[in-house]
Amino acid sequence: MQKEKKCRLCGILKPETLDHFYAVKDRPSGIGSQCRECIRERHRSLKYKERSAELRRFHYATDEAYRERTKAGDKRRKSTPRELARRRVYTNEWRATLVGRAHQLMSSARFRAAAKGVPFELTRDWILAQLEVGHCQATGLPFDFGINYRNEHGMRGSHPFGPSLDRIDAAKGYVVGNVRVVLWSFNLAVGNWGESVLRTVATAWLERASASEGRLSNRTADGPKTESPPASRLPEQVHP
Ligand SMILES: [Zn+2]
Fold this sequence. Notes:
The chain has 240 residues and is mainly α. It is 49% helix and 10% strand. The protein has a two-stranded antiparallel ribbon. A two-stranded antiparallel ribbon has the order 3-4. The protein has a two-stranded antiparallel sheet with strand order 5-6. Strand 1 (4-6) and strand 2 form a beta hairpin. Zinc ion (ZN) binds next to strand 4 and helix 1.
């Protein structure tokens, strides 16, 4: 006859097998005193989950071996080929949406702000509203929201016509009124030396380019792919 065991919590008699009770190594019977259902019930409770999380945080903060084990496990789980592929697909799909792009711009700017110790007060919705305008606030050129840009040498990088957050006064940080959304290429060009240097260099370069274009009048010029008024159009391929 099947031996039965009474659960210490619910008091119900159940067959003394591992189907109904968990195995417990350091008990003479080798079997737990509470039935599986009662233990599952307890593990589902919010109080138990909160207590477990608290214990994990405590061990993480105080026990170096535990911390290293946790980090190693996280790293291992995140770097399986399957997980990497899943994240790549997810990231690309998310970044391809306007909301995803706004989120990405926000989180990377927040990271830079923390690193530089400047204020960050932008919201994702504010950035999204700027992106929905659709064009650069400095040049008026339309944004290209394409992802996975590669330059003519096949190198990955930021899309030159993609959006970026530009601080007007770098020290004031990322706060509304001090940030405009401009082309990456414009931001990079202005970032190091400021607009007056870019204006001087670009003007001189354009004048020289148009002079040499006069000499190469038989050359067919390919315009930029993006639609823009001719006044703000920069020649893409000029060989002085
Ligand atoms: Zn029970």
